[in-house]
Design brief:
Distance between the termini: 61 Å
CATH topology: GIY-YIG endonuclease
Oligomer: single chain
Largest sheet: 3 strands, antiparallel
Order of helices and strands: HEEHHEH
Number of helices: 4
Shape: globular
Number of strands: 3
Helix content: 40-55%
Length: 135
């Protein structure tokens, strides 16, 4: 058990020194965005472009938006050289939520967008006192 935890920590440290990791955002003329993260940012963006140009994108919303705009979009890259797999996933989710707040859920093209689990708490309704009860 202890060895497993030690191996996992070593694996996380090995990942943490990857200088190519980061997050990226595609911004389309329509106002739509797509957020992604990868341990090899340049390769992932290159693969995205290649698949989308050939009509082979695995995200139907992203492919449709790409087809409409003909690939005219702005790419924002943010390298994050010291991250673990868990941290990169969290950063991606936070960035997706920020874009949902900024442009609206319907304009974020990611398939893995879920409503925020944090909901505002509604105050309990104030009920009128029951008949005959003196308060």
């Amino acid at each position: 058990m202890l060895r497993d935890r030690k191996k996992e920590r070593e694996k996380q440290r090995a990942v943490a020194v990857n200088p190519r990791a980061g997050v990226y955002v595609w911004r389309f003329p329509s106002g739509c965005v797509y957020v992604g993260a990868s341990f090899d940012l340049a390769k992932r963006v290159k693969d995205h472009r290649s698949y989308l140009r050939r009509g082979l994108g695995d995200n139907p919303k992203l492919q449709a938006e790409w087809d409409v705009c003909g690939g005219r979009c702005v790419l924002i890259e943010r390298p994050l050289p010291i991250v673990t797999a868990d941290e990169l996933a969290v950063i991606e989710r936070v960035l997706i939520r920020e874009w949902v707040e900024r442009v609206g859920r319907d304009r974020v093209l990611n398939q893995n967008v879920t409503p925020s689990p944090i909901r505002p708490i509604r105050p309990a309704p104030v009920l009128p006192p029951a008949a005959g009860v003196v308060g």
